[in-house]
Structures are given as structure tokens and as C-alpha cells.
């Protein structure tokens, strides 16, 4: 019986690592399109690009955009629950530990913004993780209510705004005013001034540009908090209810989640994508926001259920062996993705921004991820944690912990 318990624990850890690695691949694709500033990067509906490039960007919007950072948020919530349970087993104070953990995450995020990329999500995770502390003792029923509210209210308001933008176009004055807004948005989409600045700047000069850009993006990033908090709460519920440790017993539930979430999510995404083809720019953009609040979270759960079921059916597949080590070093790999991509893109590196097509960026993503698979495997043969994961654990526990794996010594 102890061996069975140990195997189930190992299975749980591995499937979470597989999911993290899978999420990092999607995040890499979205971030690469943004950092390399490809003409027509997602959502590219208002930019003149070739049919092949259009197909790629539509596919990214349909399958990837807002699904993978949401999946990563779900996994963060599960990790949060594990931290609580670990503190309770050890009889140590949870609040000091989790507070230091959020502080460490925010420090990594701030350094990420200053040194590499202004599209960082770690600071938002640290803010939302701090909010999650307030929800840690809620009942399962209360958590469900909060999740519904956090997803339903923003998505309903977005839908009302979408309908309002259509109704406003009925009157001549409204149509004229919104046509001006549409043209302004199209100009903004095609604007590459910030990228041009980064192409002409040194590493130090780029810090000021990133700070300015991040402050401009901050309202958009903060708008993600309801979605992120909702996924954190779902993860907290799953981790606390022992769902993750009893996956073989929950196969039928996972199948239902896979069926309904993938079906509903893809229907919603089909409508959103159709909006980019047939609706004016502002109205189409409002529809895309619904991806963040509705389709993204739904499909995130569908993806997680589908991948988990595939893992349970055959955990020894090579693809899982590729995702797992990357997922074990999620923080290190997330930051290193930005380091590589910004070096390829900007003036302090190779300066390839604005020169590459979408498929070239896709090739870079595949090569980079494969490189991360091999690096993560090699690193973990000698060390127990990734370098940034180790630093984060030291901050969390407020002491220097061993890094080298005992099995490698």
C-alpha cells in the first residue's frame, strides 16, 4: 500500500509538470509573436498580410490566445493548495511562507520587466496570488460562486458592450464616430514605433522604454485579474479536494469536462473569429475580449482534461517526457524564453524584429522549445530544481536550500 500511495503521488506530480510544460509552449508562441513584432501578429485581422500568414494568425487566435496563460493560472492555484497542505503537515505558519513566495514572484516579475520584456505576467500573478490568500478558507460552494461571478460578470459586460457597439452604428452620427474609432485602432495595430525604438536602443536605454510601455499596458494587464483569480480558485478547489491525487477515480468527470468545454469553447471561438472577418474593428476587438473572459477559461479546462486523460491512458508517451522537465522548471523556462526572444529581436541583440514572417517565428518557437526540453533534462539530472525555482524556494523558506540532486552525487 505505501508503494501505491507513492506511485499516485509521483503520477500527480508528473501530470502537473506535463501540463505546465504544455502551457509554456502556448505562452512561448503568443509571446514570440508579440516580442518579434511580426507584421500581423495576433489578432491580425486589421492588417494586410498574405493568406498563409492570415491562416496562421487565425489559428493562433482560435487555439492559443488566452488559453495557455489561463491554463498556467489554473496550475498556479493547484500549487497554492499544495503549499497550504505542506505548511499544515509541517506545522509551520502558512501566511509568512506564502507572503515571501508572492514577494519573490513579484521580484522576478519586476526584474523581468526592467531587463527583458514589458509583457510580464508574473507581477499580476503575485498580486492575484496575494488576493487568493483571502479565499483560502472558503468552502467549495463559496468558491464555485466566486468563480462564476468572476467569469460571468466581465463576460456579460463585454457582451453588452459588443451589442452596444453594433446598436450605436445604426444612427448616422454613431456610425460616423465609431468609424473614426475603427480607423484609429487599425492605425494603432500597424504602429511599430515602440519596436523601432527598441531596435535602436542599447540594453540600458531599453529599460526606460519598457517601463513606459508597461505602464501603458498596465490597465490591460490588470483587466486579466478576474480571469486569473477565477482560475486560481478552480485550482485551489481541485488541489484542496484531492481531485488531483485521485485522477484515475475521476476519469468520467474528466471526460465530461473535455466534451463540454471543448465543444462550447470552440463554438464561442468560431463566433469570435467570424467577427474578425465580418465586423468593424472596434466591435471585433470587443468580441476578442470575450476570449479572455469566456472562451479562454472554458477551453483551458478542456485542454487540461484532454491532456490529463491522454496521460492517464499512456503516461510513457515521448511527448509527455518532453513536456514534464520543461514544466518542472517553469519559472526558469518562462524567463529564459524572454531572454532569447528579446536578444533575437532588439538592438542589443540580433535586431530581427519586424523582419520575420509568422512561420519563421513559429520555427524559432519550435527550435527554442526543443532546446529547453534538452536543457531541462540535462539540468535535472544533476539538480533538484531549476535555478530560478531554487532561488524562489530559498526566498519562500527564507533559508539556503540544497540545489544538487542527491541521486546525482
* Structural class designation: mainly alpha
Distance between the termini: 30 Å
> Biggest β-sheet: count, sense, barrel?
none
Content of β-strand: under 5%
Please tell me the overall pLDDT. 90
As a whole number of angstroms, the C-alpha radius of gyration is: 22 Å
Structural domains: how many: 1
Overall body shape: globular
Low-pLDDT stretches are 1-12
Return the string of H and E elements.
HHHHHHHHHHHHHHHH
| Share of residues in helices | over 70%
In terms of quaternary structure, the protein is: single chain
- How many β-strands, per DSSP? 0
Helical stretch tally: 16
Structural description of this entry:
The relative contact order is 0.16. The chain contains 16 helices and no strands. The longest helix has 34 residues, at 2-35. The protein has one domain. It has 409 residues and is an all-alpha fold.
